[in-house]
Specification:
The chain is of the alpha/beta class. It folds into two domains: 3-75 and 153-318, Rossmann fold (3-Layer(aba) Sandwich); 78-134, no CATH class. It contains 14 helices and eight strands. Strands 2-5-4-3-1-6-7-8 form an eight-stranded mixed sheet, with helices on both faces. Strand 7, helix 13 (300-308) and strand 8 (311-314) form a beta-alpha-beta unit. Helix 3 packs across helix 4. It starts with 7 loop residues before the first helix and ends in an 8-residue tail after the last helix.
């Protein structure tokens, strides 16, 4: 991997921890337990000119889920934790915004009470925390939060909780002529605030859930106005890919049943393809969860992976380190 291709937020941490002998290894944080070999064999096959599996560079497109795949997603999605802090800050400036049980629970940091308000309550919190601000100001606030707020259990900033093996993989694919895209259920503007610095993925290569926005002629900015245009999750992921990328990718990497349709879409096309799923098995270094839970459930994916030829990446067994920021 070229060192100048490493994302800026992760580069220093990776280089500081890597022995000189590891710099020649494009995936030094991956142990040789099966997944690494499958990835390397696939990349070598599609990049071998004249080979049976050769894919032209313009068709080497890889798509990655974000939450739980490129960075952590527990105890809840980072974007939701940002929304709670944003509502609290807005309420301190103007308590009159707390017009519902959901907003009052969010401002108080009462997660249990907020969850009891259901999906309508959660959407109201996102609405209040995200709307009424220009995209530029929103992204600047998100970047500041991600690089300064700390996670409740790891003590790391949220920006430090990208997965080192996945950052390495993105660099490895880039060096082999792949265009890497994020395809996430998270908000597109939220991810674009950090995608280039954290992963080397520019804003135009991010597909995510989208709300409404409008041009403000007074401020000459595009303002987030709330509502939902696309939920880029489950069946929405192939739709988002088709609408924004325009061709079927050849590699897809997720971690939950919310990514099932994306992997199904990518690996059902003609020609070479590869589907992979991170299996969260490491309770000591990260979190352990799969078939049950409130977030990141991986059930159908585990059941069908072998028959579909998808690679299950066992985090505990196959990653020698987890966080980029350690």
């Amino acid at each position: 991997m070229r060192l100048d291709a490493l994302p800026t937020l992760a580069a220093a941490a990776l280089l500081a921890a890597a022995p000189l002998s590891a710099l020649a290894d494009p995936l030094p944080s991956w142990t040789d337990e099966g997944a690494q070999a499958r990835i390397v064999a696939f990349v070598e096959s599609v990049t071998e000119e004249g080979g049976a599996g050769y894919v032209a560079p313009e068709r080497r497109i890889a798509v990655f889920d974000n939450d739980g795949t490129l960075w952590s997603e527990q105890p809840v999605y980072f974007q939701f934790l940002y929304a709670l802090d944003a509502v609290k800050a807005k309420a301190e400036a103007d308590p009159s915004i707390l017009t519902s049980p959901a907003l009052k629970a969010a401002a108080a940091g009462d997660m249990q009470a907020l969850m009891e308000t259901g999906m309508d309550g959660l959407l109201e919190v996102v609405e209040v925390s995200h709307a009424g601000v220009s995209i530029e100001d929103f992204q600047a606030d998100v970047e500041d939060w991600l690089t300064h707020a700390t996670h409740p259990t790891s003590g790391l900033t949220y920006a430090q909780m990208t997965y080192a093996p996945m950052v390495e993989l993105l660099g490895y694919l880039h060096d082999n002529g792949f265009a890497t895209w994020i395809v996430s259920g998270g908000g597109v503007d939220f991810i674009r605030a950090v995608g280039e610095a954290a992963y080397g993925i520019p804003p135009w290569q991010v597909v995510g859930s989208r709300g409404n926005s409008a041009w403000d002629p007074e401020t000459k900015t595009v303002v987030k106005t709330g509502g939902v245009v696309l939920i880029d999750d489950k069946e929405g992921k192939p739709v988002g890919i088709a609408q924004q990328i325009g061709v079927r990718p050849i590699l897809a990497f997720g971690n939950s049943d919310g990514d099932y349709q994306m992997l199904d879409y990518v690996t059902s096309g003609e020609g070479p393809s590869l589907g992979l799923l991170v299996h969260h098995t490491d309770a000591e270094r990260e979190f352990a969860y799969d078939r049950e839970g409130h977030i990141g459930v991986l059930d159908k994916g585990l059941e069908d992976a072998e028959g579909r030829g998808w690679v299950i990446v066992d985090m505990k067994a196959e990653w020698s380190r987890v966080w980029s920021g350690e």
